[in-house]
Amino acid sequence: MSSIWSRAFGRLPRRFPQAAIGILLIVPAAAFLLTFFVTPLVLMFWMSLHKWPLLGKTSWIGFKNYVMMFHNDVFVHSIWFTGAYTALIVPLLLVVGLGLAMLVRRKARGVGVLRTIFFAPVVVGLAPAAYIWIFLVDPRVGLLDQVLRDTHITSSPPVWLADPNLALAAAIAMVVWKTAGFGMLLLLTGLLSIPDEVTEAARIDGASPGQLFRMVTLPLLRRPIALTLTFSLIGGALAFEQFFLLTEGGPNNSTTTIVHAIYSTSFSRFDLGLGAAMSIFLMVILVLVSSFQLYVLRDARADA
Amino acid sequence: MVGAAHADPLHISFWARDSETAFAQKLVDGYNATQDKVHVDLTIVPGEAFPQKFGAAAAAGSSPDVASLDLVSVPYFASNNTLLDITDRAKTLPYLDTFDQAHISLSKWNDKFYALPFSAEASVLYYNKDLFKAAGLDPDKPPTTWDEIRADAKKITALGNGIYGFYFSGACAGCNLFVVSPYLYAAGADDLTGGGAPSDVDLNSPAAVSALTFLNSLNQDGSIAPDAKADNGANFYSAFGTGKIGMQGGGAFGVNDLIQNKKVNFGTTLIPGPTAGTYGSFSGGDTIVIPAGSQHVEEAWDFIKWATGDDAQKHFIADLGITPVRTDIASTYYAAKDPRYKTLADALKLGKTAKTLYANQIFTDTSGPWLALLQQAIFGNDPKAAADAAQQKVLDIVNGN
């Protein structure tokens, strides 16, 4: 090693080229990030300080957009709705994902097929999945209502997408169906990386399955759980397609999410300044909540 | 031996809404066949996304050369210099005053022409003749007043078996500007049309509230099919086509579809008002415009001239069942084809429309006040309160909040 080094770099101190190589390797990624994330972000913040219609002249209004957006009752309701949706979907995805992961971690025959089946919906796009669900719950041609009628659970099933709570339930069902497989994958890798010696040692010490799960498995799964929760949280906060397609934000804007409100403001009302302010607001909230979540789930060395 | 060099035709881009799919390609092909210097390339854009896409393209400098714009969007785009002023060119057309007046009114802004009428869609009431007969009603006597609609709808709903007297796509904003606003117009709510002044959009006038109360009564009677509330427009025409709906509003597009599919024995009549002799219709459809960023203005104008001329309006619009914007052609050539087309031509003549800068934000936005008004006033319990709330939102939009 040292001979290659001295042939390549001669008398340069070892630390300097290593740092240079490190920086060179990072430069492409940093350039990408700067061009496609940081610059648009700064531009968007700049836009949010103006009255900026899609077509026409722009004018400086300082932080007025940030005040105005809280007078927009569609936006305010969307904050509450998105929060409620996220609060419901995050734990659900974790529980279902973990359940599926524990189901498929043993090396039984056919478990690979099961893993594929559980993961398959993840690769269906969110938009096609929404369309599948629209027809599934359709009162005239849908399978769900047909089953409810045939099994005599009810003879006049509700029009799912016409009621805010039922529509929310339908959207949650669809997203769990579609996304749980991803959580399953993350948590499965976590489960498989728990060394057998640890679980065996715990069993030898007389741990029951419940104690094993709570005191050995879960703590060792801290990081995959944190990752799953972060993905679900971001997905929940940024939810758009499912409601846009299933209910178009209705009935009466009751299922409009924050991103949908941003979309309507920016591209139906052509008010880009206000849309930009709403986006910045969403981003700040998301950063705060994610940071809090990661802090709570950090590797606390205090646990044994 | 080399043949005479044939110059490649110049390609110009033309955007049309998906609601014009039935005739747009044939029209474009017809034009391309009349000469070989210019070739029009058609792009169909989904209707709900059209204002966004058109606006975004204009902002980015990539407008098409010629476009077909929903007539209610014209005031907004004309007012912010997105469209070319074609007044001088328009005045050279010999048939300028045969165009339907509602379309002309929306094609002008500040007395200048920024668009020309292109295709018309006037709303009428479809009614299922077989269901009328089955309910003991005369299939040749469609309702002429609101009370008659209500009574007929009740009788038809009483047939049971999934049959309902009335239908409309309750979650679709634009569809209902087309089929619900006529009731407001028939009651005398002229304020809905305005003259372009923003304060003229008036959703809680007594006439408007009376129309909403009438529709609310249909819901209270149970005459409206239950899936109407959630339909975002996907079933706008197919619901009536199932043969289980007694009456619903619609336009030429649906008429053609139903005639071709032959499944439903139906008639059309003007949308009635509160008393006999009052009618309403929404004069919708598309205009044709040259965006300010068009790269080929002369060629675009040549296409527009052809598309609004006798040949195109007769053979590529009327023959395909679409209502021509040329009233001279609509009330003669077109009306003669079928009595249902005659109703459409009559509706076009009395049709009103909504001229406002905020058409998109108020009437076509799914989060806007119009759709919220319909959902609350028709499916709720207090039409007046819903109308007042909606009007407040309209004022907020108009005052820039």
Describe the structure.
Chain A is mainly α and 304 residues long. Chain A has helices at 2-9, 15-48, 64-68, 73-103, 111-123, 126-136, 143-150, 164-192, 196-204, 209-220, 222-237, 241-246, 258-268, 272-296; strands at residues 50-51, 59-60. Helices cover 72% and strands 1% of the residues of chain A. By secondary structure, chain B is α+β, with helices and mostly antiparallel strands. Chain B folds into two domains: 10-122 and 284-350, D-Maltodextrin-Binding Protein, domain 2 (3-Layer(aba) Sandwich); 124-280 and 367-398, D-Maltodextrin-Binding Protein, domain 2 (3-Layer(aba) Sandwich), CATH 3.40.190.10. Chain B has 19 helices and 14 strands. A six-stranded mixed beta sheet of chain B has the order 2-1-3-13-6-14, sandwiched between helices. A four-stranded mixed beta sheet of chain B has the order 8-9-7-10. Chain B has a two-stranded antiparallel ribbon with strand order 4-5. In chain B, α18 runs antiparallel to α19 (383-398). The longest helix of chain B has 16 residues, at 206-221. The N and C termini of chain B lie far apart (71 Å). The interface between A and B is medium-sized, with 30 and 30 residues.
Topology of helices and strands:
The complex is a heterodimer of chains A (304) and B (401).
Chain A: H1 2-9, H2 15-48, E1 50-51, E2 59-60, H3 64-68, H4 73-103, H5 111-123, H6 126-136, H7 143-150, H8 164-192, H9 196-204, H10 209-220, H11 222-237, H12 241-246, H13 258-268, H14 272-296
Antiparallel strand pairs in A: 1-2
Helix pairs in contact in A: 2-14, 4-8, 4-11, 4-13, 5-8, 6-8, 8-11, 9-10, 11-14, 13-14
Chain B: E1 10-17, H1 21-34, E2 38-45, H2 50-60, E3 66-70, H3 74-79, H4 87-90, H5 101-107, E4 108-109, E5 112-113, E6 116-122, E7 124-128, H6 129-134, H7 146-157, E8 164-167, H8 173-179, H9 181-186, H10 206-221, H11 238-241, E9 245-250, H12 252-261, E10 266-269, E11 271-272, E12 279-280, E13 283-289, H13 297-308, H14 310-317, E14 323-324, H15 327-334, H16 339-350, H17 359-364, H18 369-379, H19 383-398
Parallel strand pairs in B: 1-2, 1-3, 8-9
Antiparallel strand pairs in B: 3-13, 4-5, 6-13, 6-14, 7-9, 7-10, 11-12
Helix pairs in contact in B: 7-10, 10-18, 15-16, 18-19
